[in-house]
Amino acid sequence: MIAERPLLFRTGAAFAALVLLVVALGVGAAVGETAIPLDIVAKTVANRLWQAGHAIEPIDEGIIWNYRLSRAVVAACCGSALALCGVILQSLLRNALADPYILGISAGASTGAVSVAILGIGAGALTLPAGAFLGALVAFGLVSALAVRAGRGTGAIILAGIAGSQLFNALTSFIVTKAASAEQARGIMFWLLGNLSGVRWPDVWLALPVAILGLLVCLWHARALDAFTFGTESAASLGIPVRRVYIVLIAISALMTATMVSIVGSIGFVGLVIPHAARMVVGVRHGLLLPASALIGAIFMIAADVLSRVIIPGQVLPIGVITALFGAPAFALILSQRRSAL
Amino acid sequence: MTLSANGLFWSAGGTTILSDVSLDVRPGEFLGIIGPNGSGKTSLMALIAGIRRPQRGDVLLGGKPLQAHGRREIAQRIAFVEQQAETTERITARQAVELGRTPHLGALTPWSKADDAIVDRALEEVDMAHFADRLWHTLSGGERQRLHIARALAQQSPILLLDEPTNHLDIGHQIGLLQLVREQDLTVVAALHDLNHAAMFCDRIAVMQGGRIVALGTPAKVLEPQRLHDVFGVTVDVERDGAGGCFIRYRRPDPRPPRLKLVAGEGN
């Protein structure tokens, strides 16, 4: 079987994945309104990390280091975290349509972040990401309570999620319209569609640890997630402490969603489409599916960010627009290929 | 490893499903549980498998309450095949059986050749080795059921709980599967529908009615025409073969019964 190849194979695959990721980051930093050759990107990184002292244009170095590279790293973290959330939610809820965006978790996180940023809830004690985390948890709690009342069927959680996202999006709009200044409102609306423009290094130090922690927690639970294949009762009879696994994994996906939403806004389709794409490549076993989804998600988001910067010269599109433009048709394709899955 | 239930009580939505059920499973025996639909067989199986916790009473595994064991520890001792567990994942037959090794593998334990060998053997036991690479959704109900049994065998737990394991199987596979389970060196508790299968394969039979065990003993002792009439509402002849075996022959009801007897619908 694929997931249990010898150590050598797994080390090789992990190394190849890392190389791919580094190349994607490099390309992400090189492409832009002014294209900068890859070797300049490499030299910039060498200068900044190891004081290599390569002679390059300070402007190029500044653009790459201060703007593009931080942005590419955050895009990668965001893509892999959202893809991991999608895998977790689809497996735990046994629903091919589950993802943080559709289940309203992203919308809840947005409401939480906006409440802190505009209404000042928490009186300064709550940071924006913490507000987003609370919002994400409240949204998930509400949506699952509604789904349980509606009868637990496969469709129930999705319908509840739609109701939840509508509610939280409305709340967000309400707060923004009522309390924000026109300037603030414009910025927030742009952010809500998903936007990496304001991203700098401090954002990396928030996104990167959360993405890595999320990946490690997910990998630790890879076998447990496999055991959910035939449902929760079957998982329990295979020795999985179902409630604990649920709590840990829902909490980590709320944390990942909230962190990414608080930095780049809510971005749809990544959590939904990437896991399906990864399943087509590596199969359903989580030992391989989780790292593959994280990698594909990271590369997809870097690419989406590059596109959002170059597709209309002189203008930046919200990245959520790009992910939806590519994600929606991709999802339609996947749906038509696995009709039985719903 | 002993398994016993003491005074189990279970209700759902205000309806009592099990009341005061006590049962000692003897090591190495094949214990059948029979009873009409809604008599509480499935709930009893879920409670003694530790999937649900009884509202009163307790289940003892090796003399210790089930809750005192870790979830994984229970799974290493009790394998449970529920009714009709399904998936929409594109999983292969072999991967479904591999899940049975879960309780023996930690988060960091690598999959080993020994695990592969156990899975191979389990697939062969249920006559599914030739379908190992087939995808789950391409298999028939009977083939899926045999894979569930194979998964439980791969779990290598000394106690095997089966909830109506022969549903969906043709008669050849029904008897083949019960014989296979019987031949294993396992303690087996199986909820069964077919009274003749219960008579053929069980060491003891527990009869359930209205959430209680109303009879418990060897097939020859338990399968009495009067009792089967009271519990299932059927008229039968029981033939005995002199060696302790017995066979049930069902009699067709009278063409126009004086009063139509309604049997409670599905509820398990």
Description:
Chain B: Keywords: ATP-binding, Nucleotide-binding, Translocase, Transport. Chain B: InterPro entries: AAA+_ATPase, ABC_transporter-like_ATP-bd, P-loop_NTPase. The complex is a heterodimer of chains A (342) and B (268). Chain A is mainly α and 342 residues long. In chain A, 76% of the residues lie in helices and 0% in strands. Chain A has a single domain, classed as Orthogonal Bundle (ABC transporter involved in vitamin B12 uptake, BtuC), CATH 1.10.3470.10. Chain A has helices spanning 7-30, 38-50, 58-92, 105-119, 128-150, 154-179, 182-192, 201-220, 222-227, 232-237, 242-264, 270-282, 286-310, 319-337. The relative contact order of chain A is 0.16. Chain B has a domain at 3-87 and 158-250: 3-Layer(aba) Sandwich (Rossmann fold). Chain B has helices spanning 41-48, 71-77, 93-98, 113-125, 141-154, 171-183, 195-201, 219-222, 225-232; strands at residues 3-12, 15-25, 30-34, 56-61, 64-65, 78-81, 159-163, 187-191, 204-209, 212-217, 236-240, 246-250. In chain B, strands 6-7-8-3-9-10 form a six-stranded mixed beta sheet, sandwiched between helices. A four-stranded antiparallel beta sheet of chain B has the order 2-1-4-5, with helices on one face. Chain B has a two-stranded antiparallel ribbon with strand order 11-12. The interface between A and B is medium-sized, with 33 and 36 residues.
Task: Compose a concise summary of this entry.
The complex is a heterodimer of chains A (342) and B (268). Chain A has 342 residues and is mostly helical.
Provide mean pLDDT of chain A, rounded. 86
Share in helix of chain B? 25-40%
Q: Count the helices of chain A. How many?
A: 14
The average pLDDT value of chain B, as a whole number, equals 90
Looking at how many chains there are and whether they match, the oligomeric state comes to: heterodimer
* Radius of gyration of chain A using CA atoms only: 20 Å
Count all strands of chain B and give the number.
Answer: 12
Round the Cα radius of gyration of chain B to an integer and report it: 19 Å
Main location (chain A): membrane
Pfam families (chain A): FecCD (PF01032)
Transmembrane segments (chain A): 7-31, 69-89, 101-122, 128-148, 204-225, 245-274, 286-304, 316-335
Subcellular location (chain A): Cell membrane
